[in-house]
Amino acid sequence: MSAPVKLSFGLNKGGATKKPSLGSKPLPKKKNAFGSSALGQDDSDDSDEATTPIASTSKATAGRPMVAQPPANTKLSRAQKQKQEEQLALDATVFEYDEVFDQMKEASKVALLDKKKESAERKPKYIGRLLETAELRKQDRLRAEDKMVQREREREGEEFADKDAFVTPAYLAQQEELRKVEEEEKKREELEAGKSGGMTSFYKSYLDASSKEHEAAVAATLAKPAEGTPRTSFSVAPPPKEKTEAELAAEVSAQTGRRIEVNDDGEIIDKRQLLGGGLNLVRKPKSDADAGFSVPISQRKTSDKDDSRYSSSSTASLIGQGLSPAERARQARERQSRELERQMLEVERKRKIEEEEAHKSKVQKVQKRNDESKVEMLKRQAEERRLKRAEEAKKAAAAAAEGATA
C-alpha cells in the first residue's frame, strides 16, 4: 500500500528566485520626498531610467540622418565683425534701432499734439462759408439791379432830364457799400495774382501739406548718403528680334530633319512644311500701337483718338489751367452776374409785354363802348322813348279832360 500524498501549504522563502520574464517591465521606483541629495541611490536610479528610452529608440533613429543643431552660444565670424566695424565707421548709429524708433515716435507725438490743439480750437466748418456765399450772391444781385437801372437810364436819354431826381439815403449807402466791395475785390485779386502762379503753386502747396507730417517724423533720422554709393540704373530691354524665314527654315530642319525649300530671296516656298503634329499656334505680330514702351518714342504712332487731345477744341481748357484761383473765381462771378442780369432783364421784358397787352385790351374795350354808330343808336333810342312818354302823357291829359266835362 502506497504512502499517502502529503500536501503542504506555505510561503516559499528559500530556493532559487524566479528570473524576470523578458516581457515584464520594471516597477517604477518611488521618489524620495527629501530630494535626490538625501540618498545616493536616487541619482543612479534616475540615470538608469534616463538611459532606458535612449536604448529603446536607438533602433528607430538608426536609419535617420542626424541634423546638426546650432550651438547655443554662437560667435560672430571675422568677416561679420569686419563688416560691422565698417558700418559703424560709416554711421555710428547704424544699429541704434530703438533710439531711432523712439525719435520717430516723439516727432509723431508732437504732430499729433498739434492736431489735437487745432481740433480743440476748431470753429464751424461750413456755416461761415455758406454765409459768405449768401452775402456774395446778395451783392451780385444788387450789382446786377444797379446795372439794369443804369441801362434803363441810358435808353431813356434826355426824356426825364428836366425832372428832379429823388434819391434816398439808404440807396446812397448801398451804392457806397458796393463801391467798397469792388475795391476790396480788386485789391485781393491783385495780391493773389502776385503770390500765386497758377496750377504750379496749387500742386506745390498740396505736396507741402501732405509731406509735412512725414518730414516731422523722419527729420531726426535723416543722414547724407556716403560718397561712391552705387545708384540703381534702369534700362529698357530692346524688343526681341524676329527671326527671318531662312533662319526659321534652318531651325525647323535641324529639329525635325525635314528639308525646307527656300528660294533665292530667303523666303519659304511652302510654309505648310513648317507645320507639325498637333495644334500649331502662330504668334501674331504686334503693331506699334500695341508694342507700348518697347518701341522707341520716335517710332511710335499716335492714333486719331490720341491726336484729338491736342485739337483746338481743348485749347480753352488748357489756357484756363494757367489762370490763378482768384482770376478763375472772378471770371465765375462775372458769368454769374451776367446770367443774373440776363434773367432780370428777361423778367422785366415779360412784365412790360404783359402791361402793354393789358393796356391794349382796356383801350379796345373803351373804344367799343365809345363807338360813334353805337352812340347815335343810343341817342335815337333815347329820343324815341322820350317821344313815346310825351304822347302817353297827352293821351292821359285828354282822357282826363273828357271825363271832367262829362
UniProtKB/TrEMBL annotation:
One Gene Ontology biological process: regulation of alternative mRNA splicing, via spliceosome
Keyword Acetylation included in the entry's annotation: no
Record has Coiled coil as a keyword: yes
Protein name: BZ3500_MvSof-1268-A1-R1_Chr9g10588 protein
A Pfam family matched in the record: NSRP1_N
Residues in Nuclear speckle splicing regulatory protein 1 N-terminal domain copies: 81-196
Keywords: Coiled coil
InterPro entries: NS_splicing_regulatory_protein, NSRP1_N
Biased segments, Basic and acidic residues type: 147-165, 177-193, 327-360, 368-395
Record organism: Microbotryum saponariae
Annotated Low complexity bias: 396-406
Superkingdom: Eukaryota
Family membership noted in the UniProt record: Belongs to the NSRP1 family.
Transmembrane segments: none
Location of the region described as Disordered in the Swiss-Prot/TrEMBL record: 1-83, 147-166, 177-199, 218-258, 274-406
